[in-house]
Amino acid sequence: MRLAKRIEALPPYLFVDITKKIAERKARGEDVVSFAIGDPDIPTPPHIIERLSQAARDPANHRYPESEGLPQLRHAIAEWYKQRFGVTLDPDKEVLPLIGSKEGIGHIALCLVNAGDLALVPDPGYPVYSIGTMFAGGETYPLPLTEENDFLPDLDQVPPQVAQRAKLLWINYPNNPTAAVAGVDFFANVIDFARKYDLAVCHDTPYTEVAFDGYRPISLMEVPGGKEVGVEFHSFSKSYNMTGWRIGMAVGNAHMINALMRVKSNLDSGIPQAIQYAAIEALRGPQDCIGEHNAIYQRRRDLMVKVLGEIGLKIRPPQASLYLWVKIPPSFSSTEFAAKLLDEAGVVVTPGIGYGRYGEGYIRLSLTIPDDRLEEGIARLRTWYNNVKLT
Ligand SMILES: *Cc1c(COP(=O)(O)O)cnc(C)c1O
């Protein structure tokens, strides 16, 4: 059997060593505290689960769903965008429910990228942007996200001949993994750039509702021209702790939404309807859960920022997302540092290199860790630092 080249071209799994080490520790009966997983530990709010189980019992929801999603869901998404961002969307043409936003993020390249075309992709970044491009036969041009530029891509640095070959520009704010946020000026810049080079913008934005200290992230769609140049991927996963149910949405440019719908209608048969009803409940039901969850994450953020400062890893508290992006001493690679923390402290973090070359020099810690494990992790980091010291 000969597998396709695109399978061979998939990047090697970067965390083999760490995964092996975790398994070895567990086999010895030692436990690890993991800050590596970006998956909310708090359950889906009960009113959403209630609606889901009700809908699961209705035989009307036992049959194939429509590819384009329930009209009620598309309407609920449009209403939510209206009240949250002041953006008007046509629920029939500018909204498309997805089987989790990752699904649409992976498939959109099939709508835009021909063999040999370029996609501009943030580095460090969520790996699906470049893998989706590669599956469509395209190539990725990395846009470095550096601390000096507040982890925003510097579009002036993209050579014009590269920008001309590019069909697609990926952005993601609030950002994973750097936790950076972007304001209206940045989005306006992106829109100008997209118009100048006639390229499509895909904004991946699952963290608009995960924000702290009163900060309110904005949508590309609320900036003039946003809908003309691109689409935005949003998700129920991080807003409502629904990662396990797999539901998200794409909104924005009608041509792009229509193309994505056509790709999807040839590949999948929609989202289980009971889950769509749960999503409608999430958007239309009480929203107190969002503030409650953010208060929990904010408390965890503050505890972690404090202990990291104590052990010589000072960071500015992030305003949004579920992550801390932490610069490590230059004498270590991010993989070495992660291995050191695991060996010496029994604490797991994600090495920045896993998100791209420009992620080197950083580690990512996630706030989706139950409070008691977080306390344990903090205790371990303090003991470790007192005994080992950073060199
Ligand atoms: C979590 C996450 C997603 C995926 O969300 P789903 O809707 O669960 O597929 C997409 N992009 C980024 C940057 C994420 O962190």
Name a few traits of the molecule.
2 domains; binds pyridoxal-5'-phosphate; 12 strands; three-stranded antiparallel sheet; Aspartate Aminotransferase, domain 2; Aspartate Aminotransferase, domain 1; alpha/beta; 391 residues; 15 helices; seven-stranded mixed sheet
Could you describe the 3D structure shown?
The radius of gyration is 21 Å and the shape is globular. Strands 2-8-7-6-5-3-4 form a seven-stranded mixed beta sheet, sandwiched between helices. The chain has a three-stranded antiparallel beta sheet with strand order 9-12-11, covered by helices on one side. Helices cover 41% and strands 14% of the residues. The termini are far apart. Helix 3 (46-56) runs antiparallel to helix 12 and helix 5 (101-107) crosses helix 7. It is built from 15 helices and twelve strands. Bound molecules: pyridoxal-5'-phosphate.
Describe the structure concisely for a colleague.
This protein is an alpha/beta fold and 391 residues long. It has helices spanning 5-8, 16-27, 46-56, 71-85, 101-107, 109-112, 128-135, 160-165, 184-197, 226-229, 254-265, 273-284, 288-310, 334-345, 371-388, and strands spanning 33-34, 95-98, 118-123, 139-144, 166-171, 200-204, 230-235, 248-252, 323-327, 347-348, 350-351, 362-366.
- The Cα radius of gyration reads 21 Å
Strand order of the largest sheet: 2-8-7-6-5-3-4
What's the CATH topology name of the largest domain?
Answer: Aspartate Aminotransferase, domain 2
Largest sheet: 7 strands, mixed
Q: Mean of the pLDDT scores?
A: 96
CATH domain class of the largest domain:
Alpha Beta
CATH architecture tag of the largest domain: 3-Layer(aba) Sandwich
* Strand residue percentage: 5-15%
Estimated structural class: alpha/beta
Bound molecules: pyridoxal-5'-phosphate
Tally the helices: 15
Number of individual domains: 2
Q: CATH H-level name of the largest domain... which superfamily?
A: Type I PLP-dependent aspartate aminotransferase-like (Major domain)
Q: What general form does the structure show? A: globular
Weakly predicted, low-confidence segments: none
Strand/helix succession: HHEHHEHHEHEHEHEHEEHHHEHEEEH
